[in-house]
Amino acid sequence: MIDPGLPVRLARPSRDLAAAERFYVGGLGLAVLWRTTERVPGEHDLLMVGPPGAAWHLELTHDPENPLEPTPTVDDLFVVHLGEPAGAALVDRPVAAGGTRVPAHNPYGEEHGVTVADPDGHHLVLSPRLWG
Prior knowledge:
Elements: E1 8-13, H1 17-27, E2 31-35, E3 45-50, E4 56-62, E5 77-81, H2 88-96, E6 100-102, H3 107-111, E7 114-117, E8 123-127
Parallel strand pairs: 1-4, 5-8
Antiparallel strand pairs: 2-3, 3-4, 6-7, 7-8
Helix pairs in contact: 1-2
């Protein structure tokens, strides 16, 4: 069994790490936890974001030599459980930082959250509910 206290990393490709950083750091308020600072041939460029000290983070990768096109579906979701409704400022910030407000694919998500696509098309759901 996997220990529930172990760190979790969710990795996904990005077309543009600077645009992803504007969205997740400037728009959502996450911190840059790590990034590659110089180009190393044969290695991916990395941007890791998340809350400092949390047991999870989001790793965004870009391989300039063999770039991958992100291919998210409408049901590939990154859900943040806020415990309260997402106010206009919380929704407006990631949109102003390069995101796009989109309808949820699932009617439950539309009724119980706000969905914003990041610059690569991955869906972020700001849910007023609590988990656990």
